[in-house]
């Protein structure tokens, strides 16, 4: 369904990916935006029970986009070290693909995380 990673030596194990997601606090959510253009937005997240939760406003571009198309990807950068003398960078990130949904029920939302308000698991 999804393309294989081109640089096989840099593939992280599932456990390493989970560690990155648990350590991180922010990432970039990408959805299908207005007029078919991609829409990517940086935001804070929480990782719990193999799900990613976002706290967000009840209206806006992100919510409208998810209502139209639930498919999304989310990227977290764990390491980004540029080494000029080696003409390289040491980089580690995790990209997840999934379907975003909005949790409308306040009690369910509070049960899922420590935040109040809207949440979108991916």
From TrEMBL:
This is Pyridoxamine 5'-phosphate oxidase family protein. It holds the Pfam family Pyridox_ox_2. It comes from Kineothrix sedimenti.
């Amino acid at each position: 369904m999804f393309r294989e990673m081109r640089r096989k030596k840099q593939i992280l194990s599932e456990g390493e990916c989970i560690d990155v997601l648990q350590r991180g606090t922010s990432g970039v959510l990408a959805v299908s935006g207005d007029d078919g253009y991609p829409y990517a937005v940086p935001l804070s997240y929480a990782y719990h029970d193999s799900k990613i939760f976002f706290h967000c406003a009840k209206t806006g571009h992100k919510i409208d986009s998810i209502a139209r198309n639930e498919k999304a990807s989310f990227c977290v950068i764990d390491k980004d070290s540029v080494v000029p003398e080696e003409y390289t960078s040491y980089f580690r990130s995790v990209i997840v693909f999934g379907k975003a949904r909005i949790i409308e029920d306040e009690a369910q939302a509070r049960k899922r995380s420590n935040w109040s308000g809207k949440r979108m698991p991916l």
